[in-house]
């Protein structure tokens, strides 16, 4: 299950909006459902709990960038990544540094940087 699917499932199964008529009217009008402060906070907790339950955490991009080596992997004849010291990779297992590089590359362009 992808993180997006995990979040969608958690909200579908747990988020309750009262009164229901408010949500239905907003959807019929093509508007986002306005959440009260309490509902929004509850939705946030549902999402964080679902992610934590799946072993996922939200990490600031700057932290991931700081922890990720820009060098490319290079593999020995046993399949271990010599560049990053992951020497015991099993067949099909990927170097965590390569996975982190891909995550950073997949991020949308940020607009909050100079
Ligand atoms: Zn590597």
Explain the overall architecture.
By secondary structure, this protein is mainly α. It has two domains: 3-53, no CATH class; 61-106, no CATH class. Helices cover 49% and strands 0% of the residues. The protein contains five helices and no strands. It has helices spanning 3-14, 20-28, 37-53, 61-67, 96-106. Helix 1 (3-14) packs across helix 3 (37-53). It starts with a helix and ends in an 8-residue tail after the last helix. The model has no long low-confidence stretch (mean pLDDT 91). Zinc ion (ZN) binds next to helix 5.
Question: Which terms summarize this structure?
Answer:
single chain; binds zinc ion
Per DSSP E runs of 2 or more residues, the count of β-strands stands at 0
Strand content: under 5%
Q: Termini separation (Å)? A: 35 Å
Along the chain, the helix and strand elements come as: HHHHH
Structural class: mainly alpha
Rg (CA only): 20 Å
Q: What is the count of DSSP helices, taking H or I runs of 4+ residues?
A: 5
Name the helicity range: 40-55%
Question: What is the count of structural domains?
Answer: 2
**Ligands and ions found:** zinc ion
Largest sheet: none
**Mean pLDDT over all positions:** 91
Unreliable stretches (pLDDT < 50, length at least 5) are: none
Q: In oligomeric terms, what are we looking at? A: single chain
Shape: elongated
